[in-house]
Design brief:
By secondary structure, the chain is an alpha+beta fold. 22% of the residues lie in helices and 26% in strands. It has a six-stranded antiparallel beta sheet with strand order 5-6-10-9-8-7, with no helix packed on it. Strands 18-17-12-14-13-19 form a six-stranded mixed beta sheet, covered by helices on one side. Strands 4-3-11 form a three-stranded antiparallel beta sheet, with no helix packed on it.
Length: 342
């Protein structure tokens, strides 16, 4: 009896003091991109019972979003946008912004198709092995609604086809028709898994894509880049809102996340694919990059010469899907990049 009593007391303490005993409470906050404000916001996860979902969804919407059903091809149709209105396709369950109207295209498959979400924060891609086949399921990150699947046979610039059930979508009018102008930046600083993870945390960064840049081989694969013969560097394309974060601030993040003095190497990763490089898109980015490098050289912050290349941004090739948001997909904390101590 005493032994049972001790176990009971321990379990109670574990529940009450879980945070201090290694049992962390579930974090119900997530970050999503708000297409109306063009800002990344922290919001609450939405969790409802089956009965609660049935009260707000039609039987078809419930079957698709909560039971992972699939519409018959050509049976559903997305609401059509009103001419002159600024609208976005949102999750029918919770209203999370999912796809901009202009990213929709006719794939001929019988389901609404999009080549890009409003942000990688606004979808979850999950490996799906149901029905004895391998696919990538697309889910709403806020309410876990099943939306559809994504395939690698879409149009440029992403090559993706987000095949979404019409019942999972609703058209949402945006109050502010003026869209924020975003810009692109391209950096190489070693293993792109860690570089992406750091940039994604910066406020004002709308989207990130890991890939290959600076080489001559067209449409390289990861295996080819690893041979050190393609000329490509592992790079990260950063889409950012200059009204929130400046290119100079991105440069500051870049210089502080790696050692720019080790030629073709970052820590244990050796090869030209791990070189330090800034690929500029215009004359203003070029000037800021050159000035920032020169300022660091004059300051003698780094004891050894800076080897970072500053080159025009040529063709950027997105990496294979399993490399995108690698640490997030595997529930890991970034380990290959930490603030560099000079």
């Amino acid at each position: 009896m005493k032994k049972i009593r001790k176990i009971s007391i321990f379990l109670v303490l574990a529940l009450v003091l879980g945070g201090n005993m290694g049992i962390s409470p579930k974090n119900n906050k997530i970050k999503i991109f708000n297409a109306e404000t063009n800002q990344v916001e922290e919001v609450d996860k939405i969790v409802k019972s089956e009965a609660e979902w049935k009260k707000i969804l039609t039987p078809e919407q419930f079957k698709v979003t909560r039971l992972k059903g699939t519409e018959e091809p050509f049976s559903g149709q997305c609401p059509l946008p009103i001419k002159g209105e600024n609208e976005v396709y949102a999750c029918v369950s919770c209203g999370t912004d999912l796809f901009k109207v202009e990213t929709k295209f006719d794939s001929g498959t019988g389901w609404p198709s999009f080549f890009q979400p409003v942000s990688e924060l606004n979808i979850i891609e999950k490996q799906d092995y149901s029905f004895f086949m391998h696919r990538v399921e697309v889910l709403c990150p806020r309410c876990d609604a099943h939306l559809g699947h994504v395939f690698n046979d879409g149009p440029p610039p992403t090559g993706k086809r987000y095949c979404i059930n019409a019942a999972a979508l609703k058209l949402k009018k945006l109050k502010f028709p003026k869209k924020a102008k975003t810009e692109l930046a391209l950096f190489a600083a070693g293993c792109f898994w860690g570089v992406e993870a750091i940039f994604r945390e910066a406020k004002g960064v709308v989207n990130t894509t890991v890939g290959y840049a600076g080489g001559k081989t067209k449409n390289p694969t990861y295996a080819e880049v690893c041979t050190d013969k393609t000329g490509h560097a592992e790079a990260v394309q950063v889409e950012f809102d200059p009204a929130v974060i400046s290119y100079q601030e991105l440069l500051d993040i870049f210089w502080n996340m790696h050692d720019p003095t080790t030629l073709n190497q970052q820590g244990p990763d050796v090869g030209s694919q791990y070189r330090s490089a800034i690929f500029y898109h215009n004359s203003e980015q070029k000037k800021l990059a050159l000035d920032s490098k020169k300022k660091l050289e004059i300051s003698k912050v780094f004891k050894d010469p800076i080897t970072t290349e500053i080159l025009p941004a040529g063709e950027f090739y997105p990496a294979e899907d399993y490399h995108q948001q690698y640490f997030k997909k595997h529930g890991l904390k970034p380990t290959c990049h930490i603030p560099f101590k000079k």
